[in-house]
Amino acid sequence: MSSNFADPSSYYTLIDRLHNVFEPFPAPSQVYVHLNDVRGGWDVKRVTGARIKRSEAPTCQLYSGHRGVGKSTELLRLKQWLEDDCDFFVVYFAADQADVEPEDVSYADVILACTRNLVQMVRLETNENPILTWLGNRWGELKDLATSEVEFSSLSIEQKLFEFGKLSANLRAVPSIRAQVRKTVDAHTVSLVEAVNEFIELATAQLQAQGKRGIVIMADNLDRITYIRTAEDARSNHDQIFLDRSEQMKGLKCHVIYTAPIALVCGRGVEVENRYGDCADVLPMVVVQNRDGSENLEGMEAMRKILRLRVEMIDPELAKAIETRLFESSELLDLVCAASGGHMRMLMQFMQKALDWTDVLPIQKRAVNRALSSARQTYRDAINFEWWDELARVHGTKQLPRDNRSQQFLADRCVLQYFEEDEEGEINEWFDVHPLILKIELFQSALSRLKGE
Description:
alpha/beta; 2 domains; 5-stranded parallel β-sheet; about 450 residues; 7 strands
């Protein structure tokens, strides 16, 4: 996001500027808050980065967490660390921006996305480019799908890269040719991966001559792939991409990190570990409430600090007293933080919605209630009647069964995942329903039935 909060236009009021500063963009360095201690000791450099730094062989890791919890922020911090401290060349891309359509994705889309971004970011100094050779050999099959009439052999390197980009872009943007592209790519998957690996070998040698250790590919936002199952006993699209195609996903001869849906890594955790050789790295929620329902003081202070630093970007004086000048009371500030469940994006959305109902600061209780009730209604509308008893059981036990219904709960953020670290460093995982659900009448009725059993 390019907004300059320090020099706002005179057309915007303070409330307008506050609304903008709570856009859920990845946090710039000056407002980044270290949350390791309130995420059960989770540290992206130790959890995900150490394996890359210490391994001589290529690694393939799945990285997950609830949507909006801060995965991209942590992944970009890992990118900077790998580049600055470990001398890797990192190819980072957000897959849903130019390469895949989240509601309709296959493995072919993922491998093409990795390939396109790799050849765009790593320019070989030699005219030999195995990927472009692969494309040229199949241009007769693919040129119509790239909506191109040109003869591939007559093009320059830059023009060939452009045509490859068009093919990948059409895969995302033109549903009518998507199936045809996939069919063609699937038929030549083995040769494509071989070509990509030849490219990686050439690129790695070139980069090592420049002082780099190797290549890391980060495919972000694949966790946004919509969960689809065509029948009760069918494999989901998540299973088909990340599990059934795991050998191909692991097939690139460089370090690779794929973001993966949390429903998959929690619901299919054992299968993920069996196929990838390790469990997925999961970024948990900030703990704002302990298992017993009591307030987690450190987690709540972390959420307040996140808000305070954002406000400081446009009004340092206001940031010094957000408890009484931004909000009507400290109780209202804490209500917003607790209601988020430790979820970064939802915290930002609450702030924006409350400001929508605010004409003059401080934010009043009515504005906060409007923000929370609007989000609560979304949950009320989305939860099927037969789910309430199951959600009440999760709240009571703080455990989540590994079944298809639970995967849906995680995908819809009806249930949130938390980690806690005990005094001996043991990590314990637990789950709870989203705080907004607690006040829904149907949930309270289900909870009463559960207590009466």
